[in-house]
């Protein structure tokens, strides 16, 4: 009775000793990615009888290979994928041979699902780029090769698939390989192997085929079993992004996370990257007991000899090899959202366990994936790749992505939808602001406001063109001036004659327009003034960004809620008529959206009373709230 258990233990021990290779299949649509994975699973005999039976049944219903088994159906699990014969989501499969274990990601070929491909590439060590021998190198082939390179993949297999459909032609194979090599020469892959292949019939998949006697290279499986993709993370400087401060009781305080680089032993010195505070590791704790050493990939809890201030998002590092710590860096960015990137707009940047507000301060260029040429651009659209400078609300610790994926990669998150909109790879930190510090001043905001007998505030009037923002804001300022209060009015039209005269009315320019005005209003508030800002400011994100520049209670959003029909009837400048005629582009309410406030401090419905009445109501609200002293 004990023999099977002993055999099972031996088997599991043997499996643990095998190395693991993570790879993905990518390329253009219908190049045979799913079929190749299905063939590998089938030929390595990792399918159960019920799976084979279901595959045969599904091949008759959904298959595209006539009477033959359609191996793609093993991977294309979504009903929509089977009906369309394409891959939409990323599908992960596990298989093993006598020499190695594998996790393979089958990624979509359609351009609209490039973001899914990037997800699969982010944790892969090798990419199989499939090319239909009949079609050659396509735009999506180049796109996937470039993204694979950006995401740190250094080993490429160029699988020229469906070679049977071109009569196993060596000249076709050589031409495709030469075309791809000319493009990939600038991508810096460490190894690049080209294999003529028919995934459907297993040609050069498991073993080298007699159908291609002119091919002298390895079969696909042989190459996957033998390629050396050791990332050497254990030899990198020590990095442990802290995911959790483990404090189950008063007698234990540890810092939990997965080692992202290097190794650590009890007695080793470590430091907190941001503060530089150093200590000594006393224990390496795991669920299975203490370790004498932890290496890259190990999930552990470290206890330290000293009471060091460490929280979630901090990074524990080797004291003699600390990462960059900065609130600005340059990075490659793959845009993954339908709504375009807007430089200046605040997003959430998540790196490891740390999440901070951040924005693209400058889009340096976009990249043409066909030629790798750098193109000028103000925004990034879905699936476009660019190179940009980033500005963060607080410094983070990071390494260049080429040195460490875990501490050099990040995602951008939309602050309202919580959707992931971009994936970034850090190139280097920007040093230009490291010698700039806040100057301590004896006279501060509170002192300036006290001299004026008021509380500083920013009244942010927002609404459609023609809603009455400027009229009401002007009347409010007149009333406040009559009471001896110190104010300043920033009006949208007036500011565009000076500070923002270089900006147009695209979404990107509108974001930058509000960013500058928000910073200006912050300075006036710091002077102790009551600032009135009258701007359409159509986007919630930018109004929220302006709010977060100020102290709690200093930002007062005033929504001038006037129906667009009334605004169009007023149309004091004739702008709506020009917008409807097409002579003005990107006009809010016509061909550019307005996102109404959801929780404004003051709601002003102009159709219920005249402007003077609303202005006096706003002044009364300020008095009741203590802003007027």
Give structural notes.
There is one protein chain. This protein is α/β, with parallel strands linked by helices. The chain is 28% helix and 27% strand. The strands form five sheets. It has a seven-stranded antiparallel beta sheet, with no helix packed on it. A six-stranded mixed beta sheet has the order 2-3-1-4-5-6, with helices on both faces. β21 (409-413) and β22 (420-429) form a beta hairpin. The N and C termini lie far apart (88 Å). The relative contact order is 0.07. The model is unreliable at 1-5 and 76-88 (pLDDT under 50).
Q: Topology, please?
A:
Elements: H1 2-17, E1 19-27, H2 33-43, H3 49-62, H4 79-84, E2 91-96, E3 100-106, H5 114-121, E4 126-132, H6 139-150, E5 155-161, H7 170-184, E6 191-196, H8 220-226, E7 239-241, E8 244-249, E9 252-258, E10 263-264, E11 269-272, E12 278-285, E13 294-295, E14 299-304, E15 315-317, E16 324-335, E17 347-351, E18 354-367, E19 374-375, E20 385-398, H9 405-408, E21 409-413, E22 420-429, H10 445-452, E23 457-462, H11 469-482, E24 487-491, H12 492-495, H13 507-526, E25 530-534, H14 540-548, E26 555-561, H15 564-570, H16 575-581, E27 602-605, H17 611-624
Parallel strand pairs: 1-3, 1-4, 4-5, 5-6, 23-25, 23-26, 24-25, 26-27
Antiparallel strand pairs: 2-3, 7-15, 8-9, 9-14, 10-13, 11-12, 11-15, 12-14, 16-20, 16-22, 17-18, 17-21, 18-19, 18-20, 21-22
């Amino acid at each position: 009775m004990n023999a099977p258990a002993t055999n099972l233990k031996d088997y599991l021990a043997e499996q643990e000793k095998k190395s693991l290779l993570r790879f993905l299949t990518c390329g253009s649509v219908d190049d045979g990615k799913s079929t190749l994975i299905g063939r590998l699973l089938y030929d390595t005999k990792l399918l159960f009888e019920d799976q084979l039976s279901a595959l045969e049944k599904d091949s008759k219903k959904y298959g595209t290979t006539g009477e033959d088994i359609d191996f793609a159906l093993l991977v294309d699990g979504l009903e929509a994928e089977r009906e369309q014969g394409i891959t939409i989501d990323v599908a992960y499969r596990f298989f093993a041979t006598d020499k190695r274990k594998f996790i393979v990601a089958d990624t979509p070929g359609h351009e609209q699902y490039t973001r899914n491909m990037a997800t699969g590439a982010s944790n892969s060590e090798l990419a199989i780029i499939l090319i239909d021998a009949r079609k050659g190198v396509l735009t999506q082939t180049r796109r996937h090769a470039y993204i694979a390179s950006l995401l740190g993949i250094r080993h490429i297999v160029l699988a020229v698939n469906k070679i049977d459909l071109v009569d196993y032609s060596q000249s076709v194979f050589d031409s495709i390989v030469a075309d791809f090599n000319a493009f990939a020469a600038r991508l810096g892959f460490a190894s690049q192997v080209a294999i003529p292949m028919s995934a459907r019939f297993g040609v050069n998949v498991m073993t080298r085929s007699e159908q291609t006697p002119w091919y002298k290279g390895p079969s696909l499986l042989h190459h996957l079993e033998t390629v050396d993709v050791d990332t050497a993370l254990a030899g990198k400087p020590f990095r442990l992004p802290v995911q959790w401060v483990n404090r189950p009781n008063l007698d234990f305080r540890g810092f939990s996370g997965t080692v992202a680089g290097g190794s650590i032993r009890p007695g080793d010195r470590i430091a907190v990257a941001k503060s530089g505070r150093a200590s000594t590791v006393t224990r390496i704790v795991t669920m299975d007991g203490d370790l004498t050493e932890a290496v890259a990939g190990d999930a552990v809890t470290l206890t330290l000899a000293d009471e060091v201030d460490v929280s979630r998002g901090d990074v524990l590092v080797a004291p003699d090899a600390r990462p960059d710590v900065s609130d600005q860096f340059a990075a490659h960015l793959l845009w993954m959202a339908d709504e375009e990137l807007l430089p200046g707009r605040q997003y959430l940047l998540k790196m490891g366990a740390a999440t901070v507000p951040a924005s693209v301060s400058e889009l340096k260029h976009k990249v043409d994936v066909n030629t790798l040429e750098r193109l000028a651009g103000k925004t990034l659209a879905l699936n476009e790749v660019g190179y940009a400078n980033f500005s963060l609300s607080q410094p983070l610790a990071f390494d260049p992505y080429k040195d460490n994926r875990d501490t050099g990669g990040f995602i951008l998150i939309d602050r309202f939808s919580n959707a992931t909109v971009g994936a970034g790879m850090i190139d280097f930190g920007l040093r230009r602001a490291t010698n700039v510090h806040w100057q301590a001043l004896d006279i501060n905001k509170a002192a300036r406001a006290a001299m004026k007998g008021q509380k500083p505030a920013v009244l942010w009037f927002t609404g459609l063109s023609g809603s009455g923002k400027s009229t009401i804001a002007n009347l409010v300022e007149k009333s406040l001036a009559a009471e001896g209060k110190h104010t300043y009015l920033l009006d949208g039209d007036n500011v565009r004659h000076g500070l923002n005269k270089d900006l147009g009315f695209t979404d990107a320019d509108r974001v930058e327009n509000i960013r500058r005005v928000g910073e200006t209003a912050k300075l006036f508030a710091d002077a102790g003034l009551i600032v009135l800002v009258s701007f359409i400011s159509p986007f919630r994100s930018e109004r929220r960004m302006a709010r977060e520049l100020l102290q709690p209670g200093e930002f007062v959003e005033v929504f001038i809620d006037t129906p667009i029909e009334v605004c169009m009837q007023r149309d004091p400048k004739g702008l709506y008529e020009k917008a409807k005629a097409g002579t003005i582009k990107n006009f809010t309410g016509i061909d550019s959206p307005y996102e109404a406030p959801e929780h404004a401090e003051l709601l002003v419905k102009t159709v219920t009373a005249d402007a003077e009445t609303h202005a006096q109501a706003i002044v009364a609200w300020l008095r009741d709230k203590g802003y007027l002293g």
